[in-house]
Amino acid sequence: MSIQSNVEQAIRCFTNCKKIYLREREIQGISDFLLSDDSIFHITGNPGTGKTATVRDVLQNKKFEYVNYFSEPELRSILERSKTEIIVIDEFDRYLEEKRQECLRLLVSLKNKNKKIITISNNLKMGNMRFKPYTADELKGIIKMKMENELGRHIMDEECIAFLAKKHEKAGDLRGLFKTILNAISKKEIESTEESSSKENAKNSMYIKDGRKPGKESDNSTQNKDVATNCYILSVKDFIESERQGEKSIHHQIISKVKENESSKARAYKKYLAECDQLSIPSVTKSDFSMIFDMN
Fold first, then answer.
1. CATH number for the domain including 61?
2. Looking at the predicted structure, is the pLDDT value of residue 219 above 70?
């Protein structure tokens, strides 16, 4: 398999955040709530710890209404009209902080309709379940499981995996970890495309010079690489260089575009979240958004 094919498959692997790893206790807790007589279940935890993804995984075969406070200005009216039994409110702590009376009235109304309510927060002090940040060992395990289960081979060695886990250990942010990996892979994709294009141009120039027509040539070295189980396309050096270059990610581009038409940071953040939902990509944390917003 060529380097470029490996890169493309790796991007798909680490863009897909639907498969949940190492959250068995949390999955069981949410499942138990759905079978209980309780009407509300508060989930809290740091950004990137898999709260929303885990809830969606548990509810994947059930009908439910999901709303994010930052991306849906008409949250209350949507939930008041909802016909589904299960309601999920993301960024609930911000909703409670900014519109406390409306939020409390909504909860009472939903409870009176016998709804099952799941709230997701980053900083809510009271909570039925807290998603703990991933440890370095857990981050290493998740990287390996994603490569083995979803990719079918390893694209980085033990040294690289340990470097990444150590880098993201403090925050325990899986989303941030995947973002770091994707940035490095995207850089590798650009390099691979440029290298292939350069080789093709050189080959065509050689044919023109010799008066021959381009044709297929066997490459035993490439064929031998195709049968390899693992293809290490990333190294520690790739991640260090990616950080130093400070390449603008797609999030920088989205935030910069939103800022052109919206000076209010709060409203800009809501538009940014909506854009991420439309593109089906994970969003950065609010603190990261604020930092990028101020930089642009």
1. 3.40.50.300
2. no
